[in-house]
Amino acid sequence: MIPMNTWYVACTPDEIEGKPLGRQICGHRMVLFRGPEGQVAALDDWCPHRGAPLSLGKVCEGKLVCGYHGLQMGCEGKTVAMPGQRVRGFPPVRTYPVVERHGFIWVWPGDAARADAALIPDLFWANNPAWAYGGGLYRIGCGHQLMVDNLMDLTHETYVHADSIGQPEIDEVAPVTRVEGEHVITERHMQNISAPPFWRMALRHNGLADDVPVDRWQVCHFTPPSHVMIEVGVAHAGHGGYHAPAEHKVSSIVVDFITPENDTSIWYFWGMTRNFRPEDAALTAAIREGQGRIFAEDQQMLEQQQANHLRHPTRALLGLNTDAGGVQARRIVERIVAAERALAAAPTPVAGAGAAA
Amino acid sequence: MIPMNTWYVACTPDEIEGKPLGRQICGHRMVLFRGPEGQVAALDDWCPHRGAPLSLGKVCEGKLVCGYHGLQMGCEGKTVAMPGQRVRGFPPVRTYPVVERHGFIWVWPGDAARADAALIPDLFWANNPAWAYGGGLYRIGCGHQLMVDNLMDLTHETYVHADSIGQPEIDEVAPVTRVEGEHVITERHMQNISAPPFWRMALRHNGLADDVPVDRWQVCHFTPPSHVMIEVGVAHAGHGGYHAPAEHKVSSIVVDFITPENDTSIWYFWGMTRNFRPEDAALTAAIREGQGRIFAEDQQMLEQQQANHLRHPTRALLGLNTDAGGVQARRIVERIVAAERALAAAPTPVAGAGAAA
Amino acid sequence: MIPMNTWYVACTPDEIEGKPLGRQICGHRMVLFRGPEGQVAALDDWCPHRGAPLSLGKVCEGKLVCGYHGLQMGCEGKTVAMPGQRVRGFPPVRTYPVVERHGFIWVWPGDAARADAALIPDLFWANNPAWAYGGGLYRIGCGHQLMVDNLMDLTHETYVHADSIGQPEIDEVAPVTRVEGEHVITERHMQNISAPPFWRMALRHNGLADDVPVDRWQVCHFTPPSHVMIEVGVAHAGHGGYHAPAEHKVSSIVVDFITPENDTSIWYFWGMTRNFRPEDAALTAAIREGQGRIFAEDQQMLEQQQANHLRHPTRALLGLNTDAGGVQARRIVERIVAAERALAAAPTPVAGAGAAA
To answer: Which residue of B has its CA nearest to C50?
Structure first.
């Protein structure tokens, strides 16, 4: 149940800094590297010579040199040279449309002819100096939909993250979910509560008292295939909460890009972007470290949940009001996958260039 | 070939001290915990909300609180509460009959309607202050019948435990096996031998000379499904051996409860109970440590034997006189399993309460 | 695609020094040990009593004593004794023809009736005091043919072993491959180049200048089932290269015996034999250490290549001129395996002794 004709985050730029990266995405083993003008290429991780993984090689002057016998692969999936060989007849390897944008490398694992860079989500904060982003990557042994469920139902914070961002008050306020086309929004507003440790830290870093009652909000946005952005924040109580003026609140956006490795494991790109003190690199690092520690707490639960589901694949789950965000997201994904299957059964369109600009 | 309508040791009380325990027993993943009056419950390790393992949660006031979203599960397999939810319609999870007795938690993995606490073996020593018990738990990657074979043929001590309880004389005396209903007894009596290291230690701890000839005995008792109790001991030679007066001998009972995790691995609850110096906790600890070290020596052999059998599932084994105990035990288990299958094919009885008292 | 009616190196003598060795060869789990006159025996690793691996036992006076219950197995696969038992009727276990020769233990995993010790390769250097050998053993998770490919195409040295024996000049000279019956020879001669680090070391150890131009050669010899001997060396440039007089060159033979564990993993016996300073044990050790480090560099590439092939079992590979050695070797092996299959389908010959002298 994985949409293929869509953009996923494949990696971050640091992962292909001067070297190739091998990564399985949606069941396809790819190698990513930078070509001669610095553009990113994504190819089948297969040397056409003897089937060695190209990702074990090196990048030299924008060519990917196989680490076994020196075949030089170009960004277009064509062998451009090999010592002592004429390479014109070498079979090409599959390329995947790939785009670098907003600080991420995006790949389209499905039908290249349908790839359109305009479909990459617009991250308004990504290139805005008023905002600072920090994040990381975890590999988690669960299907992408379990991770979306996790992020669209933050009541789990009370239990999984009891020591950091969790607090009983989350449970006490029912979330409200609405669907706008393929956009699912689940929001929860808590009033006049005490801030949990993570937010006390953020208040202090923002020059605000951390020991006074606050209003707290969580607005989760799902968009397909598996992106979840969560507007989170606290304001000193009584100033309007989510709508409070900037001097009374601290807020940020939790950024989650979930890329299936296969049906039961994911590359989880997590992070946070904020619009206060964006120039403060130490604060970025502190938030990143705290978030990394918190998000690591989900791993065991998600992986054991996945294992339980594999043991009992036909057991029904409950869909409570708190699950509405995940349930709606799942429906959208199911519709998309059904449409892709119908499309695959239909006549093929005229093939495009096979790589997005 | 695992009997299901029977009691197995699921765990020891310390394993559910203030927290739930997840354990697979006879192929069923269960969670065990203590309810509000301290009674033990065993449930399917599955939260009816989203399928997370309940064993990752916490026990609060006798309720098992799911570690993911806070669903509160009761001892009867029914959800008793969940923040912000009405839980009356939540589907129950399977419960397993469970009884705490004789210092162990016993579980009945099969048809709950047939569970009868009166079928739990009567361990006469368990609640008798004249006896002291110490033991431990190993997970071993072999089927339960290989472990029963091991315990019903102690000639292996000469080879596997050469440095502790093994001695050539064991080999030199043929064991005698008899069957009494579902009870298999294999016994061996060695006369006028020197005591091996473990028994020299026991003699010394019991105030007896350890450097004189002894008579030694091993009386192995198998009862279904996979319990083996071994009366073991030495007496100064010439005083009657097994029947010698107490002042000339030191003896104890090796206690083995073998609980299948699945077809090829077991939870091996091993221990020893003795009726000399029962108040001596240091002696209990010393024996326990020695026994733990000795019983660990079997692990590699049993696991490699199991692996060999999986490679060659149809190869015949020899059934020598020394194997008679294991062979007879296997026949009894086969009859029990055949009877269970016949029962399962027959009309179901009226279901009982589903939990033993 | 593994020839069975042939000799493979099973182990080296040190591996059965005073103890049995369990090893899987061509899918058969064997136990190897020395019998009463020091002769080597290879048996099925299965005790006929209860199916325990005999390799967990001990060797006592040339008998293999099972580590579980003391059954004593003889070199002919027959139980010779067991405490308290009459063993005459015990079923024998399979024996494999086995021969100790040239410093290796050779085993014939196929039809014992066809085993002929005269078919063991003649290693002229093995018992010659003018030559010294040092080597080691790696287990590598790839099929034997991938390792043969590796050794018959040394262009990989430039990439995999760039820091030791690799150099760009290898790529620049095309290898020439010829087939003589079941013998495949691939040779490459490089002229007037600088010696790479490994050879500079060898030149110095041989009392030759290491900073002058050299001629370098590599002559790879494949013989079935999977033996590769490589004549390698350098001579000070202009003295005739491979044919230069001894005082101007340093040379040796890379010795590779590749024994399939199963279809996708091998026991790789690697080594080097040289005819200079054979008495210098420190030099032998230094070369062995250097070679071990270099050959370890292939492991990741070979294992990842194997994994890639398993993912895409039907994808075609290129067969370039540099691959000719491996390609020809593969054809020979395919012919041998086809002939074995035809033989297996034909009437069986009268069975021989079942063990080679």
So the answer is: B317
> Which of A103-107, C206-210, C225-229 bottoms out in mean pLDDT, i.e. has the lowest?
C206-210
Nearest residue on chain A to C302, alpha-carbon basis: A52
Checking if the pLDDT of A9 tops 90, the result is: yes
How confident is the model at residue C353, as a pLDDT?
Answer: 43
Average pLDDT over every residue of A23-44: 98
Q: What is the CATH number of the domain that holds A261?
A: 3.90.380.10
pLDDT recorded at residue B354: 43
Q: Are C235 and C274 part of one and the same domain? A: yes
CB contact under 8 A, C83 and B300: no
pLDDT at site B275: 87
CA dist A174 to A151, A167, A185, B34, Å? 15, 14, 14, 31
- CB environment B121-149: b (16+ within 10 A), e (fewer): bebebeeeeebbbbbebeebbbbbbbbbb
Residue B209 clears pLDDT 90, i.e. is over it: yes
**CB neighbour list of residue B32: distance below 8 Å, 6 or more residues apart:** B10, B11, B15, B16, B20, B21, B23, B40, B41, B42, B98, B105, B107
In a domain, A2, yes or no: no
Same domain, residue pair B100 and B39: yes
Where is the domain boundary, B118, B143, B158?
B118
Cβ within 8 Å, pair C171-A53: no
- Cα end-to-end distance, chain B, whole Å: 28
Strand partners, C338: none
Kindly determine whether residue B90 and residue A318, on different chains, have CB atoms separated by under 8 Å.
Answer: yes
* A142 domain residue, yes or no: yes
- The pLDDT score that the predictor gives to residue C48 is 97
For residues A195 and A102, membership in a common domain is answered with no
Among residues C118, C150, C183, the one where a domain terminates is C118
pLDDT reported for residue A348: 59
Alpha helices by DSSP H, listed for chain C, are: 144-152, 157-160, 168-172, 197-205, 281-311, 324-345
For the question of an ipTM over 0.90, the answer is yes
Structure token digits, residue C70: 């003391």
Are B165 and B30 within one domain?
Answer: no
Average pLDDT of the residues in B316-333: 96
Report CB contact under 8 Å: B50, A312. no
Residues B103 and B184 in one domain: no
* Contact between chains at C318 and A84 (C-beta distance less than 8 A): no
- Contact partners for chain B, using 3 or more CB pairs closer than 8 A, are A, C
Distance of CA C268 to CAs C10, C125, C185, Å? 10, 20, 20
Element (H, E) at B337: helix B324-345
- The set of residues, in sequence order, having a beta carbon less than 8 Å from that of A307 and lying 6+ positions away, is B53
Query: How many angstroms separate the CA atoms of A293 and B160, rounded?
Result: 47
Q: What is the pLDDT of residue C171?
A: 80
Residues of C in contact with B158 (CB under 8 A): 70, 83
In angstroms, how far is CA A163 from the centroid of its own chain? 25
B66 and B159 in a single domain? The answer is no
The reply to whether A259 falls in a domain is yes
Residue with tokens 């064993």: B55
Question: What is the count of structural domains for chain B?
Answer: 2
Domain that holds residue A331: 128-338
Residue A283 within a domain: yes
